[in-house]
Amino acid sequence: MLVIGLTGGIATGKSTVSAQLAARGIPIIDADVLAREVVRPGTRALQKIVKTFGPEVLQADGTLDRPKLGAIVFGDEIQRRKLNAIVHPAVRWGMALGVLKCWLRGERVCILDVPLLIESKIYQWVGKVVVVYCSAELQLQRLMKRDGSTREAARARLKAQLPIAEKLGFADIVIDNSGTQAELEVQVDAFARRLYLEAGWFWRLKWLCPPLGLLSALWRLIWRRIKYARAARRARKAAQKAETRTP
Fold it and tell me: pTM to 2 decimals?
């Protein structure tokens, strides 16, 4: 089974692409949905959050008061790391279970929809990385229009994320959402066809013979690690050359 990592930046249209792929019958494992599920009342993650941040982060009905928790962690790197240390492992476990369920159903392809795919290093564990892209200026304009925010507020939110241009360096496939909805649909159609072609007929053999599937997945992951290591070395050498040329 081919596991794809889908990511983008705020207001680039990742959720739109994810919805379009789901409409074409491709299973989506949404990290944002899982992040809400793992902190439902009675979950271990919610218990840890209450223990760490206090009972004031709960609403009267026992559910998580997201705005109050957000106010605690916003702008406080230490508190944000504490929260991530609780939520991220639970979400990763949920994604792993989702992938396993897709494999058990005999799916050829599944997609991990993860906003922080690059930042959380999950990109190292997928077969391909897909980045939904638009220019930083268009991203800013869309965010202002969507949230009704000022340019300064929108820019502050963008600065809190890894720039979309940097995410492109990790992409195997780029879906450019700078144009119209119709143009985006054409790209998504082509991408969906490409996924099924790449999965080919060999996926069924790997499904029927799990050891073969595991070996195939392991080889793909090893090759990706080698690829990223080479890219990192080239980037470091380029940076060193640039420094030596600087007077």
Answer: 0.82
